[in-house]
Write a structure and sequence with these properties.
It is built from 9 helices and 5 strands; from the N terminus they run H-E-E-H-E-H-H-H-H-E-E-H-H-H. By secondary structure, it is of the alpha+beta class.
Length: 238
């Protein structure tokens, strides 16, 4: 049983190490020209000052975004004081998004406007939407949400609409990653983590490993490969 446990641990460590290696092999794409002022985690006044810097392109009605948000909620607690997360609105709803030719989630634009209208209530509304993921698809639920927070004007407010549009339009700044789509930002969730793009989701342990590597790199301590790879495996590498 002990041997099985050790083998399983070493196998998991091998996968995690490979994921971090693959992350560092990704090309640098940089941050968008305009970073959303709506943050779900704030450790520093300026975005670039944190060890971990996540810009997440998100659609409130995207099931993978729900999964990613749940992962990030755990990670932002674990890496408190070291992580900034900017919520880059990207509803896949033709009502407001002309960056991608998709109309997967009608109502996602409305939710974006409701969440963005009053910055002081953004986090509370953000959390409530994801806590009621299935209900949020219902127009009546969205109307009731806006009324409860006193942000009914969001649906017709030009400033809010222009701000969401400005955030979405940063998706056009990234080179295409597929022949099927015009731009790199073409689905959700897409994350720019310390200047590298990850499309889709990763399991918690793999994301945690990337974050830990970034913290160690930022703080000038041991690099990830030395800190996490079992000693036997390191000897084999040499």
């Amino acid at each position: 049983m002990i041997l099985y446990h050790d083998a399983r641990r070493d196998a998991q460590m091998g996968v995690i190490t490979q994921i971090v290696k693959q992350y560092y092999e990704l090309p640098m794409v940089g941050d968008p020209s305009f970073i959303s002022p709506y943050w779900t985690a704030r450790s520093t006044e300026f975005f670039d000052d944190a060890s971990i810097r996540v810009i997440e392109y998100v659609d409130f009605l995207c099931s993978d975004c729900l999964y990613s948000t749940q992962q990030l909620n755990k990670l932002k607690d674990e890496f408190a004081g070291k992580i900034n997360i900017a919520f880059q609105f990207f509803p896949l709803d033709e009502k407001c998004n002309s960056v991608v030719d998709k109309n997967l989630h009608p109502g996602a634009c409305e939710l974006s406007y409701i969440a963005a209208y009053d910055p002081s209530q953004f986090l509370a509304i953000h959390d409530e939407i994801f806590a009621n993921f299935n209900a949020a698809r219902n127009p009546e639920w969205r109307q009731e949400l806006a009324m409860r927070y006193g942000v009914e004007e969001a649906l017709n407010d030009p400033y809010t609409h222009d701000l969401i549009q400005r955030i979405m339009n940063t998706g056009t700044e990234y080179e295409k990653t597929s022949d099927r789509f015009d731009y790199g930002i073409r689905s959700t969730p897409t994350m720019i983590i310390n200047g590298r793009m990850i499309i889709g989701t990763l399991p918690y342990e793999q994301m945690r490993a990337i974050f830990q590597a970034l913290v160690e790199e930022h703080e000038g301590g041991q690099r990830f490969i030395e800190n996490w790879v079992p000693p036997k495996a390191r000897k084999k590498r040499r």
